[in-house]
Design goal:
Layout lengths: L1 H21 L18 H17 L11 H7 L2 H12 L4 H11 L1 H58 L1
Helix pairs in contact: 5-6
């Protein structure tokens, strides 16, 4: 009888506990999480096809309605016209320039970074010159107000010396 109990306990340990020790299972998902269904092979192929198309399109500088027709259909007919007008008027941002330059390699990235640094340096220099100019104006105003306030005190001190 005891042999049967020992055998059952060892087999339960091997079946349940040892398996959990060697290959631990992850915690179960919370009850509010809804599991997604697995994609079919056809759906996986469509996802791969769309992802590779968008990846190839990302190498083009301007991703417009030709490359992402689904996104532009949702916005309506009036919106894409406004967006195309805005892109014609507006120059590309610094970040966009750097992204395009980074794709081109170090040869195109170095001039773009140099342009960014020179722009920042000139902005810093202008801000510093403006600060110094404002500081000098404030200092002159303070010195003038001190001079004006000291002149009457000097005159009153001269009168007090003469009276004594």
């Amino acid at each position: 009888m005891k042999l049967k109990v020992v055998y059952r306990k060892v087999s339960d340990y091997i079946r349940h506990d040892l398996k959990e020790i060697v290959l631990p299972s992850s915690l179960p998902d919370p009850p509010h999480v809804v599991k997604r269904r697995k994609l079919t092979w056809h759906e996986r192929f469509l996802v791969l096809k769309e992802a590779s198309r968008l990846y190839g399109a990302s190498w083009v500088r301007d991703i417009g309605p030709e490359l992402r027709p689904n996104d532009y259909k949702k916005q309506g007919d009036a919106e894409p016209k406004k967006q195309s007008k805005d892109t014609e008027e507006k120059d590309p941002s610094v970040l966009e320039d750097l992204a395009v330059a980074a794709r081109g390699g170090m040869e195109t990235l170095r001039p773009a970074l140099h342009r960014v640094y020179m722009t920042r340096a000139s902005n810093y220099k202008d801000a510093l010159a403006s600060f110094i100019k404002g500081y000098h104006e404030g200092l002159q105003q303070t010195m003038q107000s001190k001079d004006e306030s000291q002149v009457p005190k000097d005159e009153s001190s001269d009168k007090s010396e003469k009276t004594t």
